[in-house]
Design goal:
Layout: E1 2-5, E2 8-11, E3 16-22, E4 32-37, E5 44-49, E6 55-57, E7 65-70, E8 75-80, E9 89-94, E10 97-99, E11 102-104, E12 113-118
Parallel strand pairs: 2-12
Antiparallel strand pairs: 1-3, 3-8, 4-5, 4-9, 5-6, 7-8, 9-12, 10-11
């Protein structure tokens, strides 16, 4: 089960802390990642964190992101700073896999959490 929370409607320039609980038994042995989907576009990679807490950020919002994890809570976090209207979308977390040099998620997705940034 994957449950994302923390989204909402914010003003330009504000920050949000997204959380995602991934209820699997081997969470601590899994890399985790965040993805974003905006209407009319494919889901895109945002950030990834390894089992040793090393972050890897995608080409979008790079300098405004912090990904982290708490293994005992089976939770991965994403902090987004200085939000802009173009950051709006539904944010999902998943276990990442590399497909044709692109990070993608698995077959099962949670409901995501909606982020809306107003100017």
């Amino acid at each position: 089960q994957i449950v994302e929370t923390g989204g909402g409607t914010v003003q330009r320039g504000e920050s949000l802390n997204l959380s995602c609980v991934v209820n699997i038994t081997d969470f601590q042995r899994r890399e985790m990642a965040w993805f974003r989907q905006v209407p009319g576009k494919q889901r895109e990679f945002v950030a990834r964190i390894t089992v040793s807490d090393s972050p890897n950020y995608g080409p979008i919002m790079t300098r405004r992101l912090t990904i982290s994890r708490h293994d005992s809570k089976k939770t991965v976090y994403l902090r987004i700073r200085n939000l802009q209207p173009e950051d709006s979308g539904v944010y999902y977390c998943n276990i990442p896999r590399l497909v044709n040099w692109q990070w993608e998620g698995g077959d099962y997705w949670g409901q995501g959490t909606q982020v809306t940034v107003v100017a």
